[in-house]
Amino acid sequence: MSTNITTTCRDLDQLLSVAQIACRLLFQECYKEGINNIFITETYRSQERQNYLYAQGRTRPGQIVTWTLSSNHTSRLAWDIAIGPPQSLYDEVTLKRVGAIARKLGITWGGDWTGNKDRPHFEVPKSWKMPANYKLEGQVIVPISSKKKVQLIIVENEEETKVAQAWNPASKAIRTETESYIAQAIKEGVIQESHLEDLRNGVMTTDHLLGLFITIQQRRAN
């Protein structure tokens, strides 16, 4: 990942796994509500980049783009979106619809903030849990440009079903096999090491594991 302070990171894998799952769930539910032209504009942001953006409009020329030096982008828990055609880039009606869906999912929407609203901004705490009656229903394609649309690919995949049914965090054998699988994917460079930490720390849920499995399969295929 580039450390250039002028470069925007749109890689979902640079977020903590809890935020990745929340973001995929948000895009899935938006897709189901007929909103398929949203895309990611930024995920992880280094503190150096945050400082650089904060200086804009203050000690550096340009329009003010952020109101804080402390952002959950730097904690890998936040992401920004924009809208593709035919709407304008930050179409308020669409962002409000997405914000309403985020509320149902326990995801914080910057449009709900008092004072300085940030409608393209979404974030979750580390403690976020997927609400009851929701699940990732398949492979969620999260675009990073207006050239692609949100997709939900539901495939009756026997291997995915086996993963979901077999996962038992209390089973030492299953944990060992899963740890080996995740470690191999990390070695291949397709996922971050934080996923292995989640497994070892006992916070790997079935939804988390299935979403991770889909991500690994997708990236290996590309």
TrEMBL record:
Pfam families: Peptidase_M15_4. GO terms for molecular function: peptidase activity. Gene3D superfamilies: 3.30.1380.10. Transmembrane segments: none annotated. Residues 68-124 form the Peptidase M15C domain. SUPFAM superfamilies: Hedgehog/DD-peptidase. This is M15 family metallopeptidase. The lineage of its organism: Bacteria, Bacillati, Bacillota, Bacilli, Bacillales.
